[in-house]
Amino acid sequence: MRTLGQIEPQLLVVAAFSRHVDALAWAEDQLQRAFGPLALRSDPWPFTQTRYYEPTMGTDLIKQFFVHERLVPMDQLADVKRHTILLEEALQRERAYAEARPLNLDPGFINLGKFCLASTKDQAHRIYLKDGIFAEVTLRFQDKHFRPNPWTYPDYVQSRVLAFLDEARDYFRRVRQGPRTAAAKVADQADPPAASAE
């Protein structure tokens, strides 16, 4: 009988962007209410790699990453994305901002081998999860760092974003290993094994 692969909880990372600092603060508060306290937060950075969002979100966008302490089951990425959509819609309904979409929330999961983002849009490199949500492997972990793929969004190729997500992965590695042997700790520093053909 075949043995199924180990399915372990993942590290939840949410990328938030807006032109309003107070909208990002609101998002941080609401995300912690839903998913627990943060382990890490990035500095807010200018989000200038695309003008795609300007018609609905305005100009001078800033982006910030939130990393939650509590690990999340791997099969809940779609549920997390649906909840972040509800948060976006809740802020829209308050009509506190002139923009049609004052806040964008993009959740993803980190594990030792990759960083996956959830999306409502299908593409050739995305896999359907459920409830209108897809997932893509945005970054892969190789040679001790996260590396982009051909389809990776330009803002995720920035060195400061990659460095922050490397830091988040290191946090995940420490949390998941707990008290382990020295050999296991050395193994976690290496690249994840290549996928089996089975």
Keywords:
198 residues, alpha+beta, 9 strands, disordered C terminus
Describe the structure in your own words.
There is one protein chain. The chain is an alpha+beta fold and 198 residues long. It has one domain (11-189). Helices cover 32% and strands 26% of the residues. Strands 1, 2, 3, 4, 5, 6, 7, 8 and 9 form a 9-stranded antiparallel β-sheet that branches. A hairpin with a 2-residue loop joins strand 7 (127-130) and strand 8.
> What oligomeric state best describes the polypeptide chains here?
single chain
Helix content: 25-40%
SSE ordering: EHEEHEHEEEEEHH
Evaluate the radius of gyration. 17 Å
Q: State the helix count.
A: 5
Q: Which structural class fits the helix and strand makeup? A: alpha+beta
- Beta strand %: 25-35%
Q: What does the main sheet amount to? A: 9 strands, antiparallel
Q: How many distinct folded domains?
A: 1
Low-confidence spans: 180-187, 192-198
> Looking at the structure, what is the overall shape?
globular
Report mean pLDDT, rounded to a whole number: 90
Count of DSSP strands: 9
Distance from N terminus to C terminus (CA atoms, Å) equals 13 Å
Strand and helix map with partners:
Layout: E1 11-18, H1 21-35, E2 38-41, E3 45-46, H2 54-57, E4 62-68, H3 77-94, E5 104-110, E6 114-119, E7 127-130, E8 133-142, E9 145-148, H4 159-177, H5 182-189
Antiparallel strand pairs: 1-4, 1-5, 2-4, 3-4, 5-6, 6-8, 7-8, 8-9
Condensed summary:
The protein is α+β, with helices and mostly antiparallel strands and 198 residues long. It has five helices and nine strands, in the order E-H-E-E-H-E-H-E-E-E-E-E-H-H.
